[in-house]
Task: structure prediction
Amino acid sequence: MYEIVRKEKLAPGIKLFEIKAPWVARKAAPGQFIILRVDETGERIPLTIADFNRDKGTVTIVAQEVGYTTKQLGRLEPGDAVLDFTGPLGQPSELPDSGTVTCIGGGVGIAPVYPQVKALREKGVYVITIVGARSAEYLIFTGELEELSNEFYIATDDGSRGCKGFVTGVLQELLEADRSIDHVIAIGPVIMMKAVTAITRPRNISTTVSLNSLMVDGTGMCGACRVTIDGETKFACINGPEFDAFKVDFDEQLRRLSFYRDPEAKAMAKAECRIRNAKGAE
Result:
């Protein structure tokens, strides 16, 4: 069992958990992820590592309550524990050692941008960070990222904080101002990463994205997380989750992510119904 030592509400439906997992913390690196299972009847879900503390033996994850398991996780409190916490999985980030790097995070994807920015600053890299969300209340890790970044920009869809619009608008403005950017890292919704790539590709700016493919076992055995990279089939769990953005088939990714939307909604409705009935019988 893996104890929750800290829980924090970051935004509506978005919660941070610091979990005691010494063996995972010992090996964790930016870009990697874990797979957890809340209890014996639960499903296994992947979550990107948002931070780790080797001295304390803890790993920090951020979960957005969009499905049954993430809502189940969201109901847990410090002192509670999850049954399985497997990792670190995936390949660590290959971060530049010099130059100017722009890190872009959208929505809950801002969380895994944090360890990347942290590692880049430790290397002495000049970091420009751009984060975006629907509105100000959904922004996370802004204080931490602003402190670590050489330059920090915010974009919100409704203009409630920072620039009104998308992260791509901020990136476009920087490039049109002839800012020198050597590499871009983008983590967030697939449509956002696709839009970022559409801006960097014509300028031949090296770009890395992190793919949140559907995943089951996390070891390459099931094949559920397959992605097409430069015309070849790869697996996000063992070959990624980070890939060269210019080689990613984003359209295929968007189609695959929508495959199980209706079954997932039906399964969640049934599960919630069982919980309500169980509570009513108490």
About this structure: The domain at 2-89 is CATH 2.40.30.10 (Elongation Factor Tu (Ef-tu); domain 3).
